TrEMBL record:
Statement: the UniProt record of this protein carries the keyword ATP-binding: yes
Species annotation: Lacticaseibacillus camelliae DSM 22697 = JCM 13995
Keywords per UniProt: ATP-binding, Nucleotide-binding, Transport
Residue intervals of the ABC transporter domain: 5-230
Protein name: ABC transporter ATP-binding protein
A Pfam family the protein falls into: ABC_tran
């Protein structure tokens, strides 16, 4: 099946400032795709370009095989979007805003909408001007999850939500995935991305520096090892695959090891008489920090 979304060497300049230097990735049907990076890296600029709000300086983005800029009107009929800071009509109630957003896309308030209102614990009778940031996000999320879209785009959607509501959001995204929907999720909450996403793109200073599944990225990174042996751990620190070696006692240490060398390292440790051993694969946060600490293509030892 053709990709739902394709971004090909996208660039965007604002005067002399180049916000996007080289953005290339794609989203497959039924995939939850994570888009991560710090503030100012280019996440929101990329998403606004995908939505047809900004015209690219160079490169191209297509959604459902259509040009994101030239065919924005027809594309929007098949997508649902939630920004990180939702502005609502102040004199309308939350319920009126939800119904209006649904009707804009030719859809209607259903029992599913009522279920989402309950799950997100939203008082839809209040005027939008009285809502906190979190409640404004809830209004947009209820409308989006009520929509029958083919692609859902979330740009920091849980900003302002408490942990319980974040759980509701994650559950709803996983439900979309189970029905074959595609999702683009930009988030600074790495545990959220780690739990839900099939593949991840890391953006730094307007460029995509890595795209792949978490499992693929972990193969390129290091695991943390805690070990206790019968004999002293002499010479282990000198191994090329061992990094950040910290000895607690002569026979107890913690260090990181390159993924491809774990077997060889354990073989070396076994000769010293292992009494306790735990290995922990890198988390998404570990991977993210490693990529962002890279200087000149080399990471810190």
């Amino acid at each position: 099946m053709a990709d739902v979304l394709t971004v090909d060497h996208l660039q965007k300049k604002f005067g002399k400032f180049q916000a996007l230097k080289d953005i290339t990735f794609s989203i497959h049907p039924g995939e939850v795709f994570g888009f991560i990076g710090p503030n100012g890296a280019g996440k929101s600029t990329t998403i606004r370009t995908l939505l047809g709000i900004l015209r690219p300086t160079a490169g191209r983005a297509t959604i459902f095989g259509q040009d994101a800029w030239a065919d924005a009107v027809s594309i929007h009929k098949r997508i649902a979007y939630v920004p990180g800071d939702v502005n609502l009509w102040p004199n309308l109630s939350g319920g009126e805003v939800i119904d209006f957003l649904l009707r804009l896309n030719g859809q209607w308030h259903t029992a599913r909408t009522d279920e989402l209102i309950k799950d997100f614990d939203l008082d839809v009778s209040k005027k939008a001007r009285t809502y906190s940031k979190g409640n404004r996000q809830k209004v947009a999320l209820v409308a989006a999850f009520s929509s029958q879209a083919d692609l859902y785009i979330f740009d920091e959607p849980t900003s302002g939500l408490d942990p319980l509501m974040e759980e509701v959001f994650q559950r709803e995204v996983l439900a979309l995935k189970q029905t074959g929907k595609s999702v683009l999720l930009s988030s600074h909450i790495l545990s959220e991305v780690e739990r839900m996403c099939d593949r991840i793109a890391i953006i730094r200073q307007g460029e995509i520096i890595e795209v792949g599944s978490l499992a693929e990225m972990r193969q390129l990174s290091r695991s943390t090892v805690h070990v206790t042996t019968q004999q002293p751990l002499t010479g282990l620190k000198a191994l090329p695959a061992v990094h950040q070696f910290k000895a607690k006692t002569p026979t107890q240490a913690v260090f990181s090891v390159d993924a491809e060398a774990i077997g060889q390292t354990i073989t070396t440790l076994s000769r010293l008489g292992i009494t306790q051993l735990t290995t922990t694969p890198p988390t998404l946060e570990d991977l993210f920090l490693r990529y962002y600490n890279q200087e000149g293509g080399k990471d810190e030892q």
